[in-house]
Amino acid sequence: MVTRHRWLWIFVAGMVLASLFLGAAAPALAAEKSIVWDRFDVDIAVNSDGTFDVSEHQGIRFVDGTFTFGYRSIDKRNLAEITDWTVTDASGNVYQQTYGAGEPYTFTVDEQGNAYVIKWYFPETSTPRNLYPRLPCP
User: Fold this and answer.
1) φ and ψ of 114, to 5 deg
2) Cα end-to-end span (Å), the chain
3) Ramachandran region of residue 116, left (φ > 0), alpha (ψ -120 to 50) or beta?
4) What is the pLDDT of residues 65-78, one digit of tens each?
5) pTM value?
6) What is each CA distance from 130 to 6, 22, 101, 133, in whole angstroms?
């Protein structure tokens, strides 16, 4: 009985120490990169055949850290499919869809479980600026 309690106390003490260590490390990890969404607008146009076109406009301000890509996950459980993906930014750069590692001004679309994951790549930046990816999909 005493041995059982001793192991319980050792386990509890180990969990407390682990949570203190992870809690102290978390702010340092979180401070490495940060962004702010200044805007996230969605335009939806319903077509006469019942399909619809969606355009997202995201204003993303890079605050701390170096960035080379952004991503967006879209739940596909209530959708038949999404086609005709396009990505542009506020400077008018039109991104090309690729199926591998991303070079600047390219994007990928992957199906991951019940979601589409769109990842777009841009030149490395560490200064605050806005990027407006547009993701229209009929």
Assistant:
1) -95, 25
2) 67
3) beta
4) 889 998 889 898 88
5) 0.67
6) 56, 33, 23, 10
- What is the Cα–Cα distance from 122 to 104, expressed in whole angstroms? 4
* CA separation for the pair 3, 101 (Å, rounded): 55
**Distance from C-alpha of 42 to C-alpha of 91, rounded to nearest angstrom:** 19
Q: Which amino acid is residue 87, in one-letter code?
A: V
Q: Please spell the DSSP secondary structure of 85-127, one letter per residue.
A: --EE-TT-PEEEE-SSSPPTTEEEEEEETTEEEEEEEEEEE-S
Residue where the block lists tokens 């619809």: 52
CA dihedral 94, 36, 119, 77 (to 10 degrees): -120
Widest Cα–Cα separation across the chain: 75
Contact predicate 118/137, CB 8 Å: no
